[in-house]
Amino acid sequence: MIFDAARTAALELLSPPFRAVFIKTLGLTVLALVALWFGLTSLVEWLALPWLQTLLPGMPSWAGWLGGIVAAIALAFGMALLIAPVTAVIAGLFLDDIAEVVERTDYPGDPPGRAMPVLRSLVLSMRFLGVVILGNIVALLLLLVPGVNIAAFFIVNGYLLGREFFEFAAMRFRGEEEARALRRHYAGTVFFSGLLIAAFLAVPLLNLVTPLFAAAMMVHLHKAISVRERRR
């Protein structure tokens, strides 16, 4: 059930409707990163450089150039780290688009899910951003513990990402409490699905499509679980 959902979602990433959403996500991400770059550059020029000149009044001119180069490298490194979180926030606004494509294409005979209001989508995307940041902070701390290492990244992110995206897919058809109860009932299945999402998140470039892949995968998984529940 898990691997069928993952395989189908991965293949659908190449379809035209998915590409359209990805292009919109990537375009908005680039615009957001450019805005952040200019904002951070202006902040450094406004605060950091005057502070250094005050701290080191006799600083030679070449030191200012060197400081500028170091600041540019630090900013570039920071922007590289921000690519995945910024993409996560923007992609969160298009999760319903992905879910609707999957439901319309693969489950045409089923009633369509309810799209979330824009504000709720924004809240979900911010929660996903928080999950990514918190999960990676915890994982980085656990990396210092002997014997845990990289497994910490997958365990923490697998749990958090599986929970968030499964509840998103379930809440298109169920109330919030019912969606959470279903997720708890299938906690193991949801967790192992989250591990696959975490694997996507760990690969450069693939992490740009992680929210889209996760949304499609969890729609398929929720459909499979719903069929199992009806049979019970």
Give the count of helical stretches: 9
What would you call the shape?
globular
Please describe the biggest sheet, giving its number of strands, its sense, and whether it closes into a barrel.
none
Based on CA atoms alone, the radius of gyration comes out at: 21 Å
Q: How much of the polypeptide forms β-strand, as a percent range?
A: under 5%
- How many domains comprise the coordinates? 1
DSSP strand tally? 0
Low-confidence stretches are none
Order of helices and strands: HHHHHHHHH
What level of helicity do the residues show?
A: over 70%
Distance between the termini: 16 Å
In terms of structural class, how would the helical and strand content be classed?
A: mainly alpha
Mean pLDDT across residues: 77
Keywords: Membrane, Transmembrane, Transmembrane helix
Subcellular location: Membrane
Membrane topology: Multi-pass membrane protein
Transmembrane segments: 21-42, 62-95
